[in-house]
Amino acid sequence: MSHPTISPPRAWAEICFSALKHNLAYIRNHSKQKVMAVLKAGAYGHGIEQIALAIDSEELAYFGVASVIEARKLSDAGIQTPIYLLGPTLPDERKEIIENGWTPSISSLEEADDFNQLAIDGNANPVHITLDTGMGRGGFLPAALDNAVDYVSNLPNIKIEGIGSHLPSADEDRGFTLQQFTTFEAAVEGKPYKYIHLANSAGLLDYSSSVTNLARPGLMLYGIAPITSYQHELQPVMTLKSRVSLIRTLPAGHGVSYGRDAILKSDTRVATIGAGYGDGYPRALSNNGAEVLIRGQRCPVLGRVTMDQIMVDVNDLPSCKSGDEVELFGVNILVSEIAERANTIAWEVLTGITPRVTRIYQ
Can you give the CATH number for the domain in which 254 is found? Predict the structure, then answer.
């Protein structure tokens, strides 16, 4: 029995492992610290299992995840790198964390007590203490840290392996971030833990500390610099692509897309492309000067982004034809450019690429 022909995807994301490893090498060379690779949110939309497997042999300190669901995916994939839970955990998640030997971050004494009761005697589970130096999302305030450390240190079935904090505005507010470093360094002084960590991607790129020995890069691991002056050092890992499905010449005065926000001023050659906000290409790019790349040339998006398709002006690209490959963002049009035009951030665009977009690993 013959099998039906499988058509190629309408929209796909090419994920480049060599770019990923280039970025990891740059991170290590730049920071001179151990690395926790942040793989939460499906490795920022790139595919958590595939990204983890690609760098599992790189002797990383941890893979950082946001939830037990993500930790479970890594364990099920046979990952050997230790798994770290970046935020507070729910009571009914903690038994699974202990049973699998994952490392939780502790933001309250209630969490510490619970993990201590669940842990097996004689096999103290490692935990990290979270210090709130200004993020306001979790952790102990600096004035309460010493008491918390004393309390947790006396619990027999867990052991403090590290202490960390988080930077809310390292790419926006240098003065506040420097104060965070000062607060953090004073709070952890003399604490003999294996891992002391504070820096995210922006913190790693543009700041230094005399006490930290572990960095937690996320965005820059995927090739996008949160501080643009460093972008030339990184290689984008994801390129989002589609194809031209149709080309027509529409007359002057004809509307394009919903709402007829775009009215053609002259006869225009319009290409329809098989991707839209249903694939994660932001609807907020509508009428905002967004461009795509076809045959090495930027072409303006016309009118509103629809769920499954966008239309672009290919008047200046007479060679364009149906089936041509289209770069929506990637190496030539950075996702950070797309995010800025959509009045959002690169993190949101990357994590918003939907499941129907096929990931192709190279």
Answer: 2.40.37.10
What CATH code is carried by the domain that includes residue 195? 3.20.20.10
Element (H, E) at 247: strand 238-250
**Domain for residue 8, yes or no?**
no
Q: Are residues 200 and 275 in the same domain?
A: no
101 and 166 both lie in a single domain? yes
* Claim to verify: residue 29 and residue 125 sit in the same structural domain: yes
Longest dimension (CA), the chain: 79
44 and 186 fall within a common domain: yes
Domain that holds residue 288: 238-361
Residue of 44, 73, 258, 277 marked catalytic: 258
Annotated catalytic, 258?
yes
Q: 241 catalytic, yes or no?
A: no
DSSP assignments along 280-328, one per residue: T--GGGTTTT-EEEETTEEEEEES---SS-EEEE-TT-TT--TT-EEEE
Q: Which of 40, 44, 73, 241 is catalytic?
A: 40
Per residue in 197-216, pLDDT (tens digit) is 999 999 999 999 999 999 99
Both 207 and 254 in one domain: the answer is: no
Dist. CA 69–CA 93, nearest whole Å: 9
Q: For residue 64, give the 3-state DSSP assignment.
A: strand
List the one residue out of 126, 122, 121 whose CA is nearest residue 100.
126
Domain count, the chain: 2
List pLDDT tens digits, range 252-264.
Answer: 999 999 999 999 9
From residue 175, how far is each of 109, 169, 171 by CA, in Å?
31, 10, 11
Compute the average pLDDT of residues 329-346.
Answer: 98
Roughly how many angstroms between the first and final C-alpha of the chain, as a whole number? 32
